[in-house]
């Protein structure tokens, strides 16, 4: 297991892999920040591990966001920034979702703070979060059609 | 959600709109309140009235052009917005900022923090009925805005913090002006405290109101003074220091009662700590020195060089027509804004325009806790709770 520049990230990867061998598909390091890529079906389980494992203790979901890599598939990359307040470390989880099936498990059962963050991703990208208690638009009017932050939606808007 | 017709004798609730036009929602925030008399049964915030598509617009601009958009999100903390965005771009570029520029950044951001807390205190006190405090806070804020105007030419939307450093050299006489401000300020903060802290009405309206336990706050991703007033000492300036904060000596005030009164005490203490930081920064900033990194092709050359040297002219031309391209990758940088963790996530695809810019705005995330704070209390307490979370709608909606 190679040592990552971010020493704590090695601990996270090791803990996740010892919990489930296929929990981590890829580890991306860029500019001293580590992103752990997890398979789509395991996202909520990995998130629960990150929160509950006493070696990890990622109790704060800092941010959830989406990147649209259109026309590359899988198109939508979801990034979750986690903070462990007691251990003073950060990590990023990533998973990818395709355009044909833009759904993913909601992380609201793990961190209630994911509620509005996921609603914003739904509002602007059109990704459905399964198990979300109140999935509806948050920033745009309810009757708005389309998902503006997708790359194929023009910046000037549609008429 | 509405219950309308009913038999005589049963309680019925009424759904009222608080906002989007309302003096106490601090912006265009709409809260649907289901009321049983004056008791709030449920509160549902409705956002988006100030949504201007900043994140989408950033994708259409070069990295430097997007800085002016960032000013306008949290409009009480424009320098903080500039800073988080520039730190994220510098991280993608692996660009080091000279120490002198970092100290100037720290000084400006802390002055911005004081000015933001002054607006918070003034408006919160005004909501509770203490009208004089509003005028006193804004009087001091004027001094800070005058300092910004001398430094950057602008009172609010300064765009003073740029990629690689700051935009301009500090103006002549800046040291005296800032020293005068920090010498005057502690006595003024004592004045506000004399009016409010032991005031029976102030305590009566704020003590015990809007209580949430620390576990709930962390679960709801609350950060900033709201979290620190519940005992969790999490401050990005200490936990993940950026821009030379590790060289400054300051405390992170915390309380444990986690009600509106505790949050008031934490923010007033933060004003005092920020004054300390500004004083240290004034001593650390040398009279002469760089304000930006040296990075040809990324940071524009000085105008004199551009007018006399061919290479500088070519770099200037390329930067302002095409822009620079950070290598592909993503970065997330978080700073401590007056409201909590302000983060910027940038994804670069190797082109001069960002692929995705996302701002993790503390007001947006902290506002999620409002229904929990408010349900079961009175409408007047709702006003106190909205004030105590300290939201800025420009940041909530972007």
Protein model, in words:
With 159 residues, chain A is α/β, with parallel strands linked by helices. Chain A has a domain at 7-100: NADH:ubiquinone oxidoreductase Nqo5 subunit (Beta Polymerase, domain 2, 2-Layer Sandwich), CATH 3.30.460.80. Chain A contains 3 helices and 7 strands; from the N terminus they run αββαββββαβ. Chain A has helices at residues 7-19, 43-52, 114-125, and strands at residues 26-30, 33-37, 60-68, 76-84, 89-97, 103-105, 128-130. A 5-stranded mixed β-sheet of chain A has the order 1-2-5-4-3. Chain A has a two-stranded parallel sheet with strand order 6-7. Chain A is globular and about 50 Å long. With 398 residues, chain B is mainly α. Chain B has a single domain (54-397), classed as Cytochrome-c3 Hydrogenase, chain B (Orthogonal Bundle), CATH 1.10.645.10. Chain B has 17 helices and 8 strands. In chain B, the strands form 3 sheets. Chain B has a 3-stranded antiparallel β-sheet. In chain B, a hairpin with a 7-residue loop joins β7 (340-348) and β8. Chain B is globular, with a radius of gyration of 22 Å.
**Would you identify the regions of chain B where 5 or more consecutive residues have pLDDT less than 50?**
1-7
Tell me, rounded to a whole number, the average pLDDT of chain A: 89
Number of strands of chain A: 7
- Helicity range of chain A: 10-25%
- Class from helix and strand fractions of chain A: alpha/beta
CATH top level label of chain B: Mainly Alpha
pLDDT below 50 for ≥5 consecutive residues: which ranges of chain A?
Answer: none
**Overall body shape of chain A:** globular
Strand order of the largest sheet of chain B: 1-2-3
Would you identify the CATH H-level superfamily of chain B?
A: Cytochrome-c3 Hydrogenase, chain B
- Report the major sheet of chain A: 5 strands, mixed
Strand % of chain A is 25-35%
Adjacency order of strands in the biggest sheet of chain A: 1-2-5-4-3
The CATH C-level name of the domain at 7-100 in chain A is: Alpha Beta
Measured as a percent range, the helix fraction of chain B is 40-55%
User: What's the domain count of chain B?
Assistant: 1
Number of strands of chain B: 8
Q: How would you classify the helix and strand content of chain B by structural class? A: mainly alpha
Separate helix tally of chain A = 3
- As for the CATH topology of chain B, it is Cytochrome-c3 Hydrogenase, chain B
